[in-house]
Amino acid sequence: MPAALTPLALVFDGTICLDRFVPWLREHIWFTPFVTRQTGRHYFSSYPIVGPLLVSPLYLPLAATGLREWDPGSLVIFARIAEKFAATAITALSAVLLLLLLRRITLQQISGTRLAWVLTLVYALATETWSISSQALWQQGPGEFVIVGCFYCLQRWTEDRSRGGWLLLCGVCTAAAFAIRPTNLVLLPAVLAGLWLAQASMPQYLRFLAAPLFGGLLVAGYNWYVFQRLSGGYAVGVLKGSIPPGLLGLFVSPGRGLLIYTPVALFALCAFFPAARPACRRHKPLLGTAVVFSILEPLIMARSLIWWGGYCWGPRLLTEIGAPLVILMALGVSVLDRPWPRRAFVVLALYSVSIQGIGVFFYPNGHWDGTPQSVDAASGRLWDWRDNPIERTVRGGFYWSPYAIVGAALTGGLPAAQLRARELNVNPYEQARPGVVSPRANPELP
User: Fold this and answer.
1) How far apart are CA 316 and CA 383, in angstroms?
2) Given CB 3.0 to 4.6 Å as the disulfide criterion, which of 116, 121, 287, 333 pairs with 103?
């Protein structure tokens, strides 16, 4: 919610403060005190604001409209629709950037361009990129964009090391990834591992580190001003869970397991087959960065006390490893030259797309997250194979309410959309079924 409103505050009021919205929000949306922060006389988002700032240019055309004069309630509903377009745009841009990178990786492969397109579609439709990043302004969408940008800049630098600007841009993307979502800090040691494999010189290390160091100081200063602590709205204490059960849940639980929702991710292991050695030797920095990030990110998320990510579809907290896993698939794509691996890849890719499509078009129907108990209060439900989110959501049917509301807006304007939302008993920022209390939104959790 605050991520959707921050761009409007910036465009209409020239500020990152949510003063225009919070009084209305406190009267109508129960979790407002937990996702906003009052400092002095102003209200801020409880979450990092770099992601909303990154998509704010998409909202600039609104400055020339009469939306500035709308009442806060109408703007909140409008923001819910606009955030979908912003999220879709930034996610699509990340896919375009990944396509450019994959074309460079597969350049020496027969049908390299076609392979790059196939793997880009896997990233875009067979991972949480579709069901999470493109659906709303979670931190994951902008985070994926800058993470892909980091890998692209690293590849361009390895192709021509005399162009230090690419290394500087790689550092900028790394800093942005951390600023968008603090747990993305693991991208820093991942890139450093890639530079080590590339035998980078000390000046090259310093050129890369300049932006992360400067960005870290800016983020720390903002967090101290707004939250009076360097970690901002996050608490380091939340990362005190046990790693083994968290990892098992993130990868194989029926409620959130990556290998249940995106089993095509298994083909990232192709990068370690003998047939992939020539490509891996050519792209050692990419290989090292992708491997380290794909290992460290799940380890961090497994330590979270709420590794399942609250109310969501699939392994939301592992969304950012989608692009590194696809990069590893590209490095090992020669393994798919044989018929059986190719057929298995196609089957798992189509299955993964189907599962993500259920999350896009059916979730939250079935209301698995909240019934019969909140998943946050009864996390053991994540291991219930008989009553799992996929089956329950499919049985819940197509989630047509958002399309009905947007259709009303297109035919009768915003008043018609508001009326339709009331008729359907839809709160624009609440996914729980009417009469079911969702868990408290907690900005302390990633």
Assistant:
1) 17
2) 116
